[in-house]
Amino acid sequence: MFECMPLSTLRHRLLVLGGLFLLLLLLLFGAGAYLESRSALREVQAHNLETLATRLAADVDDRVRTRQVLLEQAAASLQLAPPQLERQGAALVARFRDLKGMFNNVLLYDRNGKLIADYPGLSGRLGADVSTQDYFRSTRDTLRPQVSEPVRLGGEPNRAVIVFTAPVFSAEGQLAGVLGGSLDLDAPEFFGELKNIAIGQGGFLTIHTLRSRLAILHADAGSVMQAPVSVDPLLQRAFKGIQGPAGVGVSRGVPALLVYQRLRNVPWLLGVEQPLHEAMQPARLLGRNYLLLGLGVLLLLLPLAWWGMYRLLRPLPRLQAQLARWRHEPYAAVPVLGCREMQDIAHEVAAAVRRRADCERQLAARDALFDTLSEESPMGVLVVDAQARLQSLNPASMRLAGLPAAEIGNWIGRHWLDEIHPDSLPQVAGQWQQLLATGSGFELLCRLQHRNGCQAMVELRFSELAGSGGERRFLGLISDVSAREEARGKLQAERERSMLLLGSISDVVVLTNRMDEIEYVNPPALALFGVPASDVLGRLLGVFLNLVCPESGQAVALRDIERDAAGKPLALDLLSRDMRVQPVLLTLSVLTGNSPLQGCKVVTLRPDSERQHRELLQRRAASHDGLTGLRNRRGFLAALGEVLDDNRVHYQPHVLAIIDLDHFKAVNDSAGHEGGDLLLQDVARIMQRQVRSNDIVARLGGDEFAILLCHCELEVAERTLRELLQAIDAHIVYLGERVFRISASIGVTMILPQDERAQPVLSRADDGCYQAKQRGRNCLVLHAGAL
């Protein structure tokens, strides 16, 4: 059906493609030339318009200046006093009838703005008062000639004039009156001549005043004496005093070239406008000529292109004939086609045909090998289509299902899922649907419906065959894993029993591999490490187990224990993650034999309670007083140092008190050291009752005590210590038949933010205690330097 179509042959297609390319090239060239010519033409037209605007502005300036000079000369020739000017006004104005060619009317005003004469005279105009008009006031105030804004006449609202004024001076130089000349905006003397200036066919001249922005000359009569409704950007810049080159704007609703010039002798803005389509008309003619020229060139080149295509494609029929021959004789020689490109194509096609023939032979050999392997393989091999129908299977597949191999032909075309056990069918069917949807293979364990009634556990692998053409085919491999799964079940049961046994042990048990990586930890070990099992398994044991020697404090490595003390319990210190020291008994054992666990290590940890209790007693004896149970000087200084370190970070109020017992020596001398010891124990109990549980009470030595009231304001501390004074003073000691009473002297100081060492704080409290002794004992003194 393609033989009769115009583009059925390569020659036609190349010809059309070449023609389109040539046409596009010509269009691009023509468009570029047209745009460049249009841009150049626009610049030339803009330059011409600017030149014209400059000349017209100079001409209008000359016309205005001529009228100003004539009016100034006429005013200067009068030199009359104000009374004379009023009496001779009509005769004087008649002298200036020559000005009628320059102005529509000549007017003479007295110095108060009253019209006293005009030429030619109009009835009813004499006596008119213009003293409120801007042009008269400016002339009177500045004594200089003026040109007015357009003024509408009161009796004739459709008539507007421009008034030129010049001051009239007396012989003494005083203002006697004002001589004026008016120009009607509709009169032919001035504005009519400018309106008749032709700028092309549709261009025109405009004049606007700069102060009121009213149009005094415009091609549209309705725009005269009107401000622009929508100010063009070029006109807006011109009003602001910015004069630029000609530009494109909108005039009377159509695009136009615009240029504006300010006049030198009068505050007017002259504009020259020319429709853009008129200015660019030569460019359109040039574009049309370019298009006709391009079409002519295209028509001339098409026959030449046809002849060239015919010459270039002559070898194609010979190549077509050779391709038909290679279909039956793939190793035939390559003919000479007379074109290097065609010759290269022929060689490449011949090589591809020969490679295809080689691949077909290799594929046939592989199919034969696959059939042989499939027949002899102990693994079941299935090939199924997308509808789960069997296309081929080997004898091993029949044996795995308990079927005779001779019935293979009866199973071709049946669904392979029919042989899956009902217990495994939902899982297998779900994986099969996912394989159809995504094309990704799957592997799983399942059970088959064995004809002999035994449990046939198999490992099933399925994947999609690549290069199967339009029909999707899938390869399935089936392996019998019944014996392996049975052994795995027994091993798993044994492992679970072992894990249950290890989990019931209260000691820490850790199993590592040969690389010291954790394989198993029991619950006590997880509690010791303080992390979940997922963060422990597979990581080095040394990350969680930091061991040091109790005597030297040196770190102990597991490899040193394995080398020197494997199987022996060792007394070590375990550093927890928060740097706490815990005495433990560690035993490391290395598994031997030919089992898979050969070289693995078992580490057990048991808390060393006896050593831990012994060390606790030693630490308490080092920091507490043996008589009273309070902290001794060493323990108190350690607690005070911790408070000072904390205050460097964030200050809190703390109070330190030094307490010295009064008259204790008399008790000690009278009742002996045994009586003195009993009294000290009573005082220690009184102090512990009077202070809070978080306060620190210490016996510094002899009958000297110290109390550190933590996080306590000074007022609260003072009240607590005075109550302590009363309690000690009220205490009575009975020793045999004798009765003793004592009191106490207390020195108190606040711990300041700048305190860094314990000695200055203790010195301040000692000074307060000494002052209490000097004041008669049984009192409390606050140190003045720490209040």
TrEMBL record:
<keyword id="KW-1003">Cell membrane</keyword>
<keyword id="KW-0812">Transmembrane</keyword>
<feature type="domain" description="GGDEF">
    <location>
        <begin position="652"/>
        <end position="785"/>
    </location>
</feature>
<keyword id="KW-0472">Membrane</keyword>
<keyword id="KW-0808">Transferase</keyword>
<dbReference type="InterPro" id="IPR000014">
    <property type="entry name" value="PAS"/>
</dbReference>
<protein>
    <submittedName>
        <fullName>Diguanylate cyclase</fullName>
        <ecNumber>2.7.7.65</ecNumber>
    </submittedName>
</protein>
<dbReference type="Pfam" id="PF00990">
    <property type="entry name" value="GGDEF"/>
</dbReference>
<dbReference type="InterPro" id="IPR052155">
    <property type="entry name" value="Biofilm_reg_signaling"/>
</dbReference>
<keyword id="KW-0548">Nucleotidyltransferase</keyword>
<dbReference type="InterPro" id="IPR043128">
    <property type="entry name" value="Rev_trsase/Diguanyl_cyclase"/>
</dbReference>
<dbReference type="InterPro" id="IPR035965">
    <property type="entry name" value="PAS-like_dom_sf"/>
</dbReference>
<dbReference type="InterPro" id="IPR000700">
    <property type="entry name" value="PAS-assoc_C"/>
</dbReference>
<dbReference type="Pfam" id="PF02743">
    <property type="entry name" value="dCache_1"/>
</dbReference>
<dbReference type="Pfam" id="PF08448">
    <property type="entry name" value="PAS_4"/>
</dbReference>
<dbReference type="GO" id="GO:0052621">
    <property type="term" value="F:diguanylate cyclase activity"/>
</dbReference>
<dbReference type="InterPro" id="IPR000160">
    <property type="entry name" value="GGDEF_dom"/>
</dbReference>
<feature type="domain" description="PAC">
    <location>
        <begin position="442"/>
        <end position="493"/>
    </location>
</feature>
<feature type="transmembrane region" description="Helical">
    <location>
        <begin position="290"/>
        <end position="310"/>
    </location>
</feature>
<dbReference type="InterPro" id="IPR033479">
    <property type="entry name" value="dCache_1"/>
</dbReference>
<feature type="domain" description="PAS">
    <location>
        <begin position="494"/>
        <end position="552"/>
    </location>
</feature>
<keyword id="KW-1133">Transmembrane helix</keyword>
<dbReference type="InterPro" id="IPR013656">
    <property type="entry name" value="PAS_4"/>
</dbReference>
<dbReference type="InterPro" id="IPR029787">
    <property type="entry name" value="Nucleotide_cyclase"/>
</dbReference>
<dbReference type="Pfam" id="PF13426">
    <property type="entry name" value="PAS_9"/>
</dbReference>
<feature type="domain" description="PAS">
    <location>
        <begin position="366"/>
        <end position="439"/>
    </location>
</feature>
